[in-house]
Specification:
Number of helices of chain A: 2
CATH class of chain A: Alpha Beta
Radius of gyration of chain A: 16 Å
Distance between the termini of chain A: 54 Å
Strand content of chain A: 25-35%
Low-confidence stretches of chain A: none
Oligomer: homodimer
Largest interface: A-B, 46 and 46 residues
Largest sheet of chain A: 4 strands, mixed
Shape of chain A: globular
CATH superfamily of chain A: Phosphoribosyl-AMP cyclohydrolase
Number of domains of chain A: 1
Strand order of the largest sheet of chain A: 2-1-6-5
CATH architecture of chain A: Roll
Mean pLDDT of chain A: 95
């Protein structure tokens, strides 16, 4: 059941048919899941070279520096891949106020499913999105 | 910048064009990122009803109960979604020996990228994959 990909030191990342790889962003200090995005080869390379988390926007079809508008940039402390090398984990430390989410919250994962609807488990906003994105 | 999706209690999950949604599995106790998979509507429903983590195998094109072969099943303690409701976080507790990865490791993310190759940061195997998958 082990493959050539999972016990090797050789980096053989498997980007999908669109040239993208899922990137799971976690807090390097406490492990909190912060956000989920995609990288293409360029976003990964720029992140590795600059140490600043960059992604690929599927909507805008451009390379995107996390925090370029909000100031909520993230230093990429380390980058891991999974057993079959088709997902990345980006361990980061916040350089702004610590809000990974565009809503101003620390994490994009602030609601849980309860009885068919969503219950807010984090409502603390570290910035005001109406102010940050409309100035 | 806020949308109808991110400040609502209404569950409006956005499955992709293949009917899938990315599912990030984390340890409910310590927050560790364990694995990444996909769910379709059925996998989510079965997980919600049974409390056991199920996913959709894109390779085998079937509903898949995590741990059905290895015994490494996971109870889904809570299920969260992100701001734009197109990703899930599944918080789980291990019911087997605590190996989420088919290689026998706790997490699928056990190697980090260093100077263009992979460095193992976790080599502890909680089960022997050659024994577990070939019996």
């Amino acid at each position: 059941m082990t493959s050539a990909l999972d016990e090797t030191k050789a980096l053989q990342l498997r980007f999908d048919e669109k040239g993208l790889i899922p990137a799971i962003v976690t807090d390097a200090r406490d492990g909190t899941l912060l956000m989920f995005a995609y990288m293409n080869r360029e976003a990964l390379d720029v992140t590795l070279v600059t140490g600043q988390a960059h992604f690929y926007s599927r909507t805008r079809k451009v390379l995107w520096k996390k925090g370029e508008t909000s100031g909520e940039t993230f230093a990429a402390v380390s980058i891991l891949t999974d057993c079959d090398q088709d997902v990345l984990q980006i361990k980061v430390t916040a350089e702004g106020q610590g809000a990974a989410c565009h809503t101003g919250r620390k994490s994009c994962f602030y609601r849980k499913i309860v009885n068919g609807e969503l219950e807010f488990i984090d409502n603390e906003k570290l910035f005001d999105p109406d102010f940050v994105y409309e100035k």
